[in-house]
Amino acid sequence: MRFKGRTWSLLMLLLAFTIVAAGCGNSGGGKGASEGGGESKPVTKNNKDIVIAINANFITLDPHNAGDTHSISGARTMYEGLMGFNDKMELVPVLAEDYTISDDGLTYTFNLRKNVKFHDGTEFNAEAVKINMERIMNEENNLRMRKSFATVADVQAPDEHTVVFTLSQPYNAFLNKAAMALMISPKALKESADITKDPVGTGAYKFKEWVQGDRLVVVKNEEYWQEGLPKVDSITFKPVPENGSRIAMLKTGEADFIYPMPTEQVSDVEGDSNIVIDKIDSTIVRYVTLNTMKKPYDDLKVRQAINYAIDKDAYIKVVKSGLGSKLTSSMSSMTQYYSEQSGYDYDVEKAKSLLAEAGYPDGFEAELWGENDSESIKGMQFFAQQLALVGIKVDVKSMEGATLSDQINSATPENAKIQMWYVSWSPSSGDADGATKGLFSSEFFPPAGANTAYYKNDNVDQWIKDANASVKAEDANEIYANIQKQIWEDAPWAFLGVDQVITGKRAYLEGVKALPDGSISVIDAEVK
Amino acid sequence: MSDNSTVTVHSSVPEDTLAKSPATGKFRAFMSKFMKQKLAVISSGFILLLLVLAVIGPHIVPYPPNEPNYDAMMQGPSAAHWAGTDEYGRDILSRLIDGTRLTMVVSLSAVFISAFLGTILGLISGYYGGWIDRLIMRGSDVMFSFPDLLLAIGIVAILGPGLSNVVIAVAVFGTPSFARIIRSVTLSSKESLYVEAARSMGAKHNRIIWKHIFPETIPSIIVNVSMRIGGAILAASSLSFLGLGAKATEPDWGAMLSMGRDYLSIAPHIVYYPGLLIFLTVLAFNLIGDGLNDALDPKTKN
Amino acid sequence: MGRYAIQRLLGVIPLLFVVSILVFMFIHLIPGDPARLVAGKDATLEEINGIREQLGLNLPLWQQYVNYMGDLLKGDLGVSVTSGLPVTDMLASRFLPTIILTFTSLGWALVIGLVIGIISAVNRGKWPDYIGMLTAISGISLPGFWLGLVLIQIFSVELGWFPTGGVDSWQSYILPSFTLGAGIMSMLARYSRTSMLETMREDYVRTGRAKGLREFVVVGRHALRNSLIQVVTVAGLQFGFLLGGSVMVETVFSIPGMGRLLIDSIGFRDYTVIQALLLLFAAEFILINLIVDLLYGVLNPKIRYASK
Question: Is the keyword ATP-binding in the record (chain B) (predicted)?
Fold first, then answer.
């Protein structure tokens, strides 16, 4: 009996070991990177109902108040604007057939597409555009979109298919902003108590149901104005926050399309013939802001030293699992008016000598802030490891998003505690203004904006104004080249990388894709 | 997140029985009973080993635990790296050994803090009764009805990130269950003859509480401390899962597990070893708790 | 008993009132500005101030509380800061998944826990006891999120038996309820074992044995009944734990329940939603324990409720 008890207890301990071991072993079962990835069960699609798993909830379906990428994606399934973006984020007319811009850049005239109907059967016309613009610009509504149209002085509808926008001053990014203003049925606006619960647009899909936090279902718009579209019956969006669960859904076929595809697991499914991974360069840039008003970051040499101390290739390899590219300006190459810069190649010795010149031969102690998602934590750790090699001891502080935002925005420029901030940025409408003004103009020090480097350069301030006021694209292009060159030299950031937008989908699905800003386009969705 | 009330309740059975036995002077009897609990003995050995590691760990690690090697990322276990390397090419074994101290310090200090606070509150509540008792107990009711995770998020958010705040967060939501247990032990021992006697001889409240009642509660405290340590380790790792735990740079087991979960399908060893170690450690603490519970229960006759 | 129940129910009201004040103070202590979070990274100050005014966040804190309570007493839980939807609507769609999840978890934990506990107690010190207790204790020795992820890997991806998550069918609740219930199961198993051992030493059980009743009858009729009472009481107390655990399980298994809503709302400092959820949790917890107390009386007629 005595003996038996001991034997059993030992056996049990062993058993516990094996159970756990088996669990872990199975989970990776035969899927080691070296073995080239396992094959998921082939699933054929008998219906035309698509499920898309994304990493966060839709916050709102009001297209004039949506700020996050997912809400915008959701709204775009049902709504369209005068302008829109193609796969490369280039501007194309959608509900407008064409447009003209006056020479002084103050008058935009849109000729509207005819025979377009809202889902409720009412006609899309110039009056509808006017009513939508009035809604956006009405101060009482306090909609997010309002600031984009701050320069609009007047909207007129001279005839049923013509709309004329008059600006108070030229605004170069106006067409980009126009692409963000999606058109809601005036009838629905008037009659519906809450347009977020019952969206009515002109898009390829009609609203079916939205259970906040669970799913958004849109169904085929049989009377869509583009011939032959859409090709699927319905699309269901599901928020699946946990990376591991999202990819599991793709493997089992519970989801037909997932975004984002976690970079770490791309290699795991790449050998699987049932799954297709798409990667495109994005407008999402990753960087660390350096507080240029604070010691020792107020010294240009220190900021440059930090830039030299970072091995950008290693950053892509370690933090992005090799899927990304180096950041070679203050914006991504996918953003309008991008101009490539060079320099800051990885050079530890140069970094050390710059630090020595600045009076910090032994480095210094620094604090790095960032959010607490695993992506950021990983990047921050890497950053700290790199700076440690040149003697800068970095204390990594990851904070919950809301707390971090509070820390950043509750300080005046002079007493700001922020030193370095690991962060990403993506201009939602792909325009250079969105990638520049809020980040580098001295009017936008927190809490007024996101210039957390407290970067102030009088030339840059002036150029940003000039660029916005410029009418011709080539003028804007030249000014933005100057801006980017100056910022690169002043190094208010440690420039790190540009994300790839990576999506995973079942092989039978075509036409669903992510755009460079991370929004998802489903208009061409098709089951093969 | 953790077995908040688990322990409370579990030991509310022995707690009144424990109270009936004089807690002191029975060490030998206790040891002989405890040694019969095979699983608990093995577990004690394991925990002892961990404690030794926690002390000498930094001196015996094969590699510097925080030094990355980007040329040796995510390698499986090998002769050079017994437990493989992680996503930065750091040696996982070294990090686990080095992290023992961190994990132990966090969980032990959190539990000791809640034991300390809970004991004081429980003694006051049980001994004085009346409005102060009602206040403390209603307070702990409120705490129980609060999802402890939210409490932890709130605490970390208010106090800011960092290990010491994780300790506080874990300690705070462990306190009410200690208070409840100690209160019920206090209640029954308050009625015992020698406390009555002491009171009738005019002893001061303070003296009665600390000289007569407190010793009665010690067995309950010991049992619950050992059981809650496991819960505290899990709670801390859950906080890491939510991004509110230990600093990611530090080799805390929970942080290793939660950061490594993105690699579950391509490099499972990154989560395998921290997971196994957490599992075994928590298991061991719980088994010790169970063993202590049995050994300290006077009704147990083998 | 009816009178007792009513008395207890009335007693809930002041408790909820205190909870409401505490919750209100607590969440306003947490740093973070909902107006800014809703407005987004590229918001202008003007925009943020506009939102703040819309939400009444520029009022003094006590006035915000008075307004909130005023609406609450009228049955109006307010509007979500983030989504602009009425909180009542949001809760309505999130309520059921969490309730199903917690009850299925509790259900199977109770059954398995009791079975393990009884087997262990009856076979005390023998191998079924060891296996039983090890299984039980293993249940609370794994971080929930990790157990969940491993279960998905094995049973959804590798074997394809169950969905990875969601709430589309009853099968989708199997893995999450297993994950969430594991901790409770182990606790109930240990608890019922101890309490079985206790009752089996009681005089009336011994008498039963001495009278030559079969072990089966002794265990079944006397010991089990008695420990059942205590186990049920314990199970009720686990609700706070289950609701807390549901946060993690709902995240891993993408269940659109109240736990996820809580995490999302905390992220945005969506005060109205957090308040409503916490009050609901507290009410639920108190109510469940009230029911358990009453049940206690049903299971054990020896207890009479003293009504003062």
Answer: no
Using CA coordinates, name the residue in chain C closest to A39.
Answer: C158
What is the chain A residue with the closest CA to B239? A372
Q: Kindly list the strands in the beta sheet with A162-167, ordered across the sheet, starting from the edge strand earlier in the chain.
A: A96-101, A107-112, A162-167, A152-159
Best B240, B262, B271, B294 member to test A by mutation, with max A CBs in 10 Å, is B262
The pLDDT assigned to A338 comes to 92
Residues B10-63 have pLDDT tens digits of: 333 343 444 444 545 567 777 777 777 777 888 899 999 999 988 888 888 888
Q: What angle do CA C209, C110, C203 make, to 5 degrees?
A: 20
Domain membership of residue B8 (yes or no) is no
CA A354 to chain centre: 34
Pick C247's closest partner by Cβ from B8, B149, B299: B149
CA distance B67 to C32: 35
Residue A40 and residue C168 in contact, taking contact as beta carbons nearer than 8 Å: no
Domain ranges of chain C: 1-74, 87-305
pLDDT over threshold 90, residue C37: no
For residue C53, give Cα distances in angstroms to C49, C56, C61, C274: 6, 5, 14, 20
DSSP 3-state of A153: strand
Sequence letter at residue A236: T
For residue A296, is the peptide bond before it cis, meaning its omega torsion is within 30 degrees of 0? Answer: yes
Hey, which bits of C88-247 come out as E strands? none
SS3 C293: helix
Distance in angstroms (rounded) separating the CA atoms of residues B1 and B12: 21
- Please report the domains of chain A, with CATH numbers, ordered by start residue: 46-77+203-275+502-528 (3.40.190.10), 80-191 (3.90.76.10), 283-500 (3.10.105.10)
> Chains contacting C with at least 3 CB pairs below 8 Å?
A, B
- What is the average pLDDT across A357-362? 92
What is residue C162's three-state secondary structure? Answer: coil
Q: Which residues are paired to A287 by β-bridges?
A: A423, A495
Q: How far apart are the first and last CA of chain A?
A: 67
Q: Kindly report the CATH number assigned to the domain that includes residue B131.
A: 1.10.3720.10
> Does residue B289 form part of some domain?
yes
Strands (E), C81-131: none
The conformation of residue A182, written as its DSSP 8-state character, comes to: B
C87-305 domain in CATH 1.10.3720.10?
A: yes
Domain total of chain B: 1
Per-residue pLDDT at B297: 65
Q: Is the pLDDT of residue A356 over 90?
A: yes
> Could you tell me if B41 and A12 are in contact, meaning their C-beta atoms sit under 8 angstroms apart?
no
- Type of residue at A30: G
Contact A39, A274 (CB under 8 A): yes
Chain B, 35-74: which have a CB under 8 Å from a chain C CB?
39
Domain assignment present for B208: yes
Please determine, for residue A2, whether its predicted confidence score (pLDDT) is greater than 60: no
Report the percentage of chain C scoring pLDDT > 70.
88
Least confident range of A33-47, C130-144, C227-241: A33-47
| Contact state of B265 with A268 under an 8 Å Cβ cutoff | yes
Residue B67 lies in a domain: no
**Total residues found in chain B within this entry:** 302
Subunit contact B262:A28, Cβ cutoff 8 A: no
pLDDT tens digit sequence for A290-345: 999 998 999 999 999 999 999 999 999 999 888 999 999 999 998 889 999 998 99
- Range of lowest pLDDT (A127-136, B164-173, C164-173, C179-188): C164-173
Please list, in sequence order, all residues whose beta carbon lies within 8 angstroms of the beta carbon of residue C302, skipping any fewer than 6 positions away: none
The Cα B278–Cα C141 span in angstroms is 8
